[in-house]
Design brief:
- The chain has 937 residues and is mainly alpha-helical.
- It folds into seven domains: 97 residues, Winged helix-like DNA-binding domain superfamily/Winged helix DNA-binding domain (Arc Repressor Mutant, subunit A, Orthogonal Bundle); 131 residues, Serine Threonine Protein Phosphatase 5, Tetratricopeptide repeat (Alpha Horseshoe); 134 residues, Rossmann fold, CATH 3.40.50; 81 residues; 68 residues, Arc Repressor Mutant, subunit A (Orthogonal Bundle); 194 residues, Serine Threonine Protein Phosphatase 5, Tetratricopeptide repeat (Alpha Horseshoe); 96 residues, no CATH class.
- Helix content is 64%, strand content 6%.
- Strands 8-9-10-7-11 form a five-stranded parallel sheet, with helices on both faces. Strands 1-2-3 form a three-stranded antiparallel sheet, with no helix packed on it. A three-stranded antiparallel sheet has the order 4-6-5.
- Strand 9, helix 15 and strand 10 form a beta-alpha-beta unit.
- It is globular.
Length: 937
């Protein structure tokens, strides 16, 4: 589909020349809300706010799901992604009119700044052509979308103003004077439009009309708004009365003379060229020139490159920027004096602040305040400057924002991968002219840059050590990066000659409670939610740490640190003697998180909601497990592995889960019988899934004995069921039947229908292998009925697959295809990777029988690849896979199968799942099938 989305006017979607139907006003409102956040996930609550006013109906959340389903039907299922209860639309920038508009407007602004008025006018016209009316019309929308529509309409007006500026700069005042009159009538309080109209009238030789237009502006602003015209309008009137030459262009295309500027000030001359940063430069220019920002603060941790970026931005923005270095200033009261001295203004009887204000009050200027973080209390002086000097713009660099109303904060990110590698190579070559970034060295450099968080200062310091250490040794030495990254250039400030010194400088600026919170947050591996921040006692200090750029916040409101900063925080934690207490609080918090998620998943259909959250917390869960094992906190360790058991199985972390269980079982060697039994019982299925049947059997037999010893009837039933599954895989059908029957009887006595349903599904496969097709189907149907009544979607996906294989063996291929299709659909919704792989493999066999060997080869290859990645291995299924592969090679040839294998590896899972669905929906005559596979419980 050649999709184009439109929100600059009525909300519409086009496929080529055809307009697609995308539902009613509320469904289009959901589409608009997703498009406004293109590339980001939008929560269901945010979508409710977008569609309804302050009192949404009780059914609002359900209605959102209906609307999203409708949009998927219209646009294609792969166009809207789901993560928990959030949604994201997949749309490229050139597919959305608003994104095209912003790109064209930025080009127009850049061209006008560069003096290319003709290009600026043309780009602005094309940008405005993206609009077909007021933004987001014809929607049934709430206040959030109404506010977004107003913001978009404001951007359109900014484009109109920019186009007029370009036309005036070209000397095309005759062409736009009439339209300017209409614009002023429609927007009487926009002074910039009135300035443009007055100037256009004057240039057309209509001086009296220009002065009358000024008087009309003044009368309207005083009578209706209660304010005098701004200084620009007043200056324009005075210039017209004096008939200043600068009001008329020197010739076609020549811009009017600029307003007086302060005397030129020399920017710091960077010793090295800037690498990367184009997106940030464009954003800074856009903020000042298109968005009308007057204060932009570049924030970020020490060493991220704020000063270097500010120099480049100042060069782009002004011919004569005023650069004020505040690094030597330690008292905020001395900032006005530093500014006044840099401006070179005479003394003022009311002091340096008054001198600076008097000098800048009527001037158009850019002042850059570098290293503002140490004088943050001087923010009030900056606010006064901006209020008293209407043509002044300020750019500041600071580890913390100034927190005044005019501020636009731009967090300077670390360098992305390619730019970080380029910077490393440039600095390494400066230190060693023999350095060459070849194919062998590049992966090492990329890894080193990732470990340094993309921080330019850290990269530059590391690059100078490459010659002495070599790539592998340098990478290993980064385990103690704060000790390694020292001895920077002597022309850097002292705090930037070593990475530790940079962090020391930020740490010393914190209060004692903030230092404690900073140290404790070092135990976070990756990002953590506000709840874990509170559990670590850091909630009250969080704002201060964010302002100091020692903690970062992501789009999902989770908090963490760059790894370089985290290493420093852990050092401070050790120095405080509080490491054990912090790690214990962290581990207890994530144990509670895992247990709540496990309980929610067992309660019904919550797995697809809680598992994405666990994926997000996985680094922290791993860190908690490793600490608990090292610290001898066996109860926490066993609690964590058992709570994470189902998550690891469903999401395909089988090999990792087995490793953690093996460590937990070893650590629980001398634990209480009940605790050791839990570790053995929950860990056995991981060994089983990886084909380690002896280990799985030994663990389950010991767990069974311990469960009987402590009188744990549920544990006895679980162990019997798992032993039955192991016996089935080993081909011991009699033992499998006996153990599974014992398990079923135990769960029936306990009234545990969820576990009972799993055993019935296992019995179905056992009976199928024994040749009892009718009993196999009866057991499978009992399992399905129980799981549907419990809404146990995870196990339902497994049982549907198992019963589908049973039906295939029994010769009922039509029913089998329906069961496998439902299993695949559920598994995809749950991201149950093992079950997706299983169904792809079975469907490959069906496709081959249907006469579609190429489809079969792709499905088989992807299913095998996914199973290998997960680490699942069942002997008899592997034999069937090998046989099908041999048949494919015989039918297509080895080269063709190899090519199809490669295609399957590169293809999207969505596309391959669609191919599998097409096979499963196709009717086919019954034919013999391979025996059913082992229970996978």
């Amino acid at each position: 589909m050649n999709i184009r989305f439109s929100i600059l006017g009525p909300v519409r979607v086009f496929d080529g020349p055809l307009q697609l139907g995308v539902g009613g006003p509320k469904q289009r409102a959901v589409l608009a809300a997703l498009l406004l956040e293109r590339g980001r996930f939008v929560s269901r609550d945010a979508l409710v706010d977008a569609v309804w006013d302050d009192a949404p109906p009780a059914s609002a959340a359900g209605s959102i799901q209906v609307y999203v389903h409708g949009l998927r039907q219209a646009l294609g299922a792969d166009r809207i992604e789901t993560r928990g209860t959030s949604y994201r639309i997949v749309a490229e920038a050139d597919e959305l009119d608003a994104a095209r508009f912003e790109t064209l407007l930025a080009h127009a602004q850049h061209a006008l700044t560069a003096g290319d008025a003709a290009t600026a006018a043309a780009e602005a016209e094309v940008a405005l052509a993206q609009w077909s009316g007021p933004a987001l019309t014809d929607l049934d929308a709430g206040p959030a979308l109404r506010s977004a529509a107003a913001a978009l309409d404001e951007r359109r007006m900014q484009a109109v103003v920019l186009r007029n500026e370009a036309a005036l700069a070209e000397g095309r005042h005759h062409a736009i004077v009439a339209e300017l009159g209409e614009l002023v009538a429609a927007h009487p309080y926009r002074e910039r439009l009135r300035e443009q109209l007055i100037l256009a009238l004057y240039r057309c030789g209509r001086q009296e009309e220009a002065l009358a237009a000024y008087r009309d502006a003044r009368r309207t602003l005083i009578d209706e708004v209660g304010i005098e015209p701004g200084p620009r309008l007043r200056e324009l009137e005075a210039a017209i009365l004096r008939q200043e030459p600068g009001l008329s262009p020197a010739g076609p295309g020549a811009p009017p003379e600029p307003a007086p500027s302060p005397p030129a000030r020399t920017l710091p001359v960077p010793p090295t060229r800037l690498i990367g940063r184009d997106p940030q430069l464009e954003e800074i220019v856009t903020l000042f020139e298109a968005d009308g920002a007057r204060l932009v603060t570049l924030t970020g941790p020490g060493g991220v490159g704020k000063t270097r970026l500010a120099i480049a931005a100042a060069e782009r923005l002004s011919d004569a920027p005023v650069w004020v270095d505040l690094a030597p200033v330690s008292d905020h009261g001395l900032v006005p004096q530093a500014v006044a001295e840099t401006l070179g203004v005479p003394e003022h009887p009311d002091g340096p602040a008054a001198a600076a204000i008097a000098h800048l009050a009527e001037r158009r200027a850019l002042v850059v305040l570098d290293n503002f973080e140490q004088v943050l209390d001087a923010a009030a002086f900056v606010a006064e400057l901006l209020s008293r000097a209407p043509e002044l713009c300020v750019m500041a660099t600071s580890r913390a924002p100034l927190r005044i109303r005019a501020e636009h904060e731009l967090a300077v990110p670390p360098l992305p991968g390619d730019d970080a590698v380029r910077l490393f190579a440039s600095r390494a070559r400066a230190a060693d002219r023999a350095f060459v970034l070849d194919d062998e060295l590049e992966p090492w450099v990329a890894r080193i840059c990732r470990r340094l968080d993309g921080l330019p200062l850290a990269i530059e310091l590391a690059a100078t050590r490459l010659r002495a250490l070599g790539p592998a040794q340098l990478d290993a030495a980064l385990e103690r990066r704060l000790e390694l990254l020292v001895d920077g250039p002597v022309d850097l400030p002292a705090r930037q000659r070593a990475l530790r010194a940079t962090l020391d400088w930020s740490h010393e600026a914190l209060t004692e409670p903030e230092r404690r919170s900073f140290a404790w947050l070092g135990v976070l591996a990756g990002a953590g939610s506000p709840a874990v921040v509170a559990a670590l006692g850091a909630r009250d200090s969080l704002d201060a740490l964010l302002r100091a750029s020692l903690v970062v916040r992501d789009a999902d409101e989770h908090f963490g640190m760059l790894e370089t900063v985290r290493e420093y925080a852990l050092e401070r934690l050790e120095a405080r003697g509080e490491a054990s207490a912090a790690h214990l609080a962290h581990a207890r918090h994530f144990l509670a998180v895992a247990e709540r998620a496990h309980e929610a998943a067992l309660a019904g259909s919550e797995g697809d909601a809680v598992y994405p959250a666990l994926e997000r917390d996985h680094d922290n869960l791993r860190a908690a497990l490793l600490w608990a094992s090292a610290a001898g906190e066996v109860e926490i360790e066993v609690g964590l592995v058992c709570a994470l058991r189902q998550f690891w199985l469903v999401r395909g972390h089988v090999a990792e889960g087995r490793r953690f269980f093996e460590q937990a079982v070893a650590d629980a060697a001398d634990a209480a019988p009940a605790l050791r039994a839990r570790a053995l019982m929950h860990g056995g299925p991981f060994a089983h899934r990886q084909g380690a049947l002896d280990q799985a059997r030994a663990w389950m037999e010991e767990a069974l004995e311990l469960s009987r010893e402590v009188g744990d009837d549920e544990g006895v039933a679980r162990c019997a069921g798992e032993l039955g599954a192991v016996a089935f895989t080993a081909g011991d059908l009699d033992r499998a039947l006996a153990a599974s029957t014992e398990s079923a009887e135990g769960f029936a006595r306990l009234g545990d229908d969820m576990r009972l349903a799993i055993v019935h599904a296992n019995l179905a496969e056992i009976e199928s292998a024994r040749g009892n097709d009718e009993e196999a189907i009866r057991q499978g149907e009992r399992a399905l009925a129980l799981q549907r009544s419990l809404d146990d979607r995870e196990q339902l996906a497994v049982t549907l697959h198992s019963l589908g294989r049973v039906r295939l063996k029994a010769g009922d291929e039509t029913e089998a295809r329906e069961l496998l299709l439902e299993s695949l659909t559920l598994a995809r919704e749950l991201d149950y990777r093992e079950m997706v792989a299983m169904v792809l493999v079975d469907t490959a066999e069906l496709a081959f029988g249907d006469g579609e060997p190429e489809v079969a080869a792709r499905l088989l290859a992807r299913g095998r690849w996914m199973r290998d990645e997960i680490g699942v291995f069942f002997t008899d299924i592997e034999d069937g896979i090998a046989r099908l592969h041999e048949r494919l090679v015989a039918a297509l040839g080895a080269d063709a199968v190899a090519r199809l294998d490669a295609e399957a590896a590169d293809a999207s899972l969505t596309a391959l799942s669609g191919a599998a669905e097409a096979v499963l929906r196709s009717p086919a005559p019954p034919r013999p099938r391979a025996p059913a596979g082992p229970p996978r419980r």
